[in-house]
Design brief:
10-stranded mixed beta sheet; 9 helices
Length: about 375
């Protein structure tokens, strides 16, 4: 390129890929050079034909995919590379995801899932905790405090993240969020990331104001016992820790079934596309998000609209909020094969439910025993 073009384009020698790697050579990121006094001119493909050919060597990418325009303190502008080998977004053997607020129950279990699936996991939180130490023991690179350096290349992480996942508790002006915007790193709120990691699975979402974690764990245990090992087992994520699970709040299988605690806070569960859904109860909660019962009912209604037409919805028929939701949607036990939506079943103690627990007894050691009755079908089984 000409001297004028070099005034606004920061380049380093091109780096060729190792033998056998698909595509052409890559251009690497260079530290900024001092501002030049001559007014910069726009970079054109004719002036940088060699670099343009390099960029075009990557299938589906163009020259513009590699550049971001920045303004210098003196008001002049220059272009900086944000793609290529240095960014680590292409042609690398391991993907990287960075979690901002990784110590919270919502993101720590997602970090464990990412590590189990082979991602390089980095993250940060405002204070030290047992969860951070547990993540480090599992191979994550975790820092205390929020800084731009946490996101950029460092020892053990020689590439920029492919994605940054942000906790609902993190503000938009967080320094690591701003860093992601500067380097064009895709940003995900927790709900959007959940939608991505559950895509392609038979998702069983467990929602409700109370009882989500317990119910999710119980459903995962039951389905796990029914899923043959040949099918790979069940994957499950809860918003807490389960004593019998080795990774605390996550179980990672290779099968298609994914059981997830679907959190209504910050409307996180609206990013999910569920095959089946369970709703334990609906009450006004999270007053920083929902101002009225009407708002929270609307959110749960939208959540149920995203359940597969061929799936099922299971709701607590004893709960007034669930009953209100059923009446709003005018849904019943009919299946979705005729286009009527997912089939709906209710459970509880009351006589109007499809499934009832009867003869409930609390035995020694806190064990509860009961009989299961199906409407019109008599007693099916005695459970504990």
């Amino acid at each position: 390129p000409s001297a004028a073009a070099a005034a606004e384009l920061v380049l380093v020698p091109m780096v060729t890929r190792p033998k056998g790697m698909a595509g052409g050579a890559r251009v690497s990121l260079s530290p900024s050079v001092p501002a030049m006094t001559r007014r910069p001119q726009r970079v054109s493909s004719s002036r940088c034909s060699r670099c343009l050919a390099t960029a075009r060597g990557n299938e589906g990418e163009s020259w513009e995919d590699y550049l971001t325009k920045e303004e210098r303190p003196d008001g002049s502008k220059h272009f900086r590379f944000v793609g290529g080998l240095k960014s680590g977004r292409q042609a690398k053997s391991r993907r990287r995801v960075h979690f901002v607020g990784i110590g919270g129950s919502g993101l720590s279990n997602l970090a464990k899932l990412a590590m189990a699936r082979g991602w390089l996991v980095t993250g940060s939180d405002i204070s030290e905790s047992d969860k951070l130490e547990s993540l480090r023991e599992g191979g994550a690179l975790v820092d205390v405090g929020h800084r731009e350096d946490n996101v950029l290349e460092k020892e053990g992480a020689d590439c920029l993240p492919d994605a940054i996942v942000v906790s609902s508790a993190v503000s938009a002006d967080n320094v690591e969020v701003r860093c992601a915007l500067r380097y064009n790193i895709p940003l995900y709120k927790r709900g959007a990331w959940l939608g991505r990691v559950t895509s392609g699975h038979d998702l069983v979402s467990v929602a409700g104001t109370h009882g989500k974690t317990t119910t999710t764990a119980m459903v995962a245990e039951v389905l796990g016992s029914l899923c043959p090992e040949a099918e790979g087992g069940v994957t499950a994520i809860v918003g807490g820790d389960v004593a019998s699970w080795e990774d605390g709040g996550a179980v990672v299988g290779e099968g298609q079934t994914f059981v997830l605690e679907a959190d209504e806070y910050d409307r996180t569960f609206l990013g999910l596309r569920s095959r089946h859904a369970i709703v334990t109860n609906v009450e006004l909660d999270h007053l920083d998000v929902y101002e009225s019962e009407e708002e929270i009912l609307q959110a749960f209604e939208e959540f149920l609209e995203n359940v597969s037409q061929s799936g099922a919805v299971v709701m607590c028929g004893d709960d007034l909020g669930c009953r209100a939701l059923l009446e709003r949607r005018e849904i019943g036990p009919e299946g979705g094969e005729e286009g009527a939506g997912p089939s709906v079943q209710t459970y509880g103690y009351g006589g109007g439910n499809d499934w009832r627990a009867t003869d409930v007894r609390v035995e020694g050691g806190g064990v509860t025993s009961f009989k299961v009755e199906r409407r019109g079908g008599g007693i099916l089984q005695q459970g504990r």
